[in-house]
Amino acid sequence: AALAYLGSAFIAAEEASADPRYKEMIVAGQAADVVYTDYFSGIPANYLKASIGLQGFDAENLPATEKGKMDFGVGSREGPRAWRDIWSAGQGVGNIHEVLPTAELVARMVREYEDTRRRLCGAA
Fold this sequence. Notes:
Blueprint: H1 7-11, H2 20-28, E1 34-37, E2 45-48, H3 49-54, H4 102-121
Antiparallel strand pairs: 1-2
């Protein structure tokens, strides 16, 4: 791959300060649990449907937003905020099955990369 997105796995790492419920949503999540929308900030981003629901929104029926308008707080500064209360994750959440220490997560990624490289390029 020329580029890979790996952030969601690190949000769910043991050392991450993310809310434990956020980590649980990532571990339980699938690509179908991710909503791509600009509703919460004006910037298109991926959010977990379950976190949208926890804040009282219907992820399937978010209103259209005004093009070019950025607002990082939905409604008011006291209301739900993108990334703080409405949690982001990528489509790769379906590949995250447990909360791991960062060192173990990185070691596994290195192993998987090496295994794949050997399979594709022959034992080198």
